[in-house]
Design goal:
By secondary structure, the chain is mostly helical. Helices cover 93% and strands 0% of the residues. The protein is built from two helices and no strands. The mean pLDDT is 79.
């Protein structure tokens, strides 16, 4: 379970890094195309930058979706970890109950053996008394 958790966290981190790298590359492209943006007419700048802005919005939507998926996966993982802890606690209680039942069973067995031995002893004692009476 720990290996699965580590793998999941590693995948999420790599996705975050990819999204961040994509955003940075778009910004670099904009800076390369418009190093002196203040020199261009505003309408021309908007036309040059508009595709990058749209891509940036798409990337932001993807990042938001990834964050939502990550938070739901994290809450699901926490829920499963809590259920696992509850199952471990139940298992511990069941093991303790089994051990107590075995102890009680062994005590009962010993008591029944003792009473059987006492009854055998009493029958032998009765036979000895009868032999002495003859």
């Amino acid at each position: 379970m720990q290996a699965l958790k580590a793998s999941y966290d590693k995948d999420l981190a790599s996705r975050d890094e990819q999204g961040e790298e994509g955003r940075k590359s778009l910004l670099r492209q904009v800076n390369l195309l418009l190093p002196n943006a203040h020199m261009y007419a505003p309408a021309y700048c908007v036309l040059l930058v508009l595709p990058f802005i749209l891509q940036l919005h798409d990337l932001e939507a993807q990042v938001d979706e990834e964050r939502k998926m990550r938070s739901s996966a994290t809450s699901g993982r926490k829920k499963l970890e809590n259920e696992l802890a509850d199952l471990h606690a139940q298992l511990d209680l069941e093991v303790k109950a089994k051990e107590d039942a075995l102890k009680t069973y062994r005590k009962t067995q010993v008591c029944s053996l003792c009473s059987a031995a006492v009854s055998v002893f009493e029958s032998y004692a009765n036979q000895i008394v009868l032999w002495n009476q003859l």
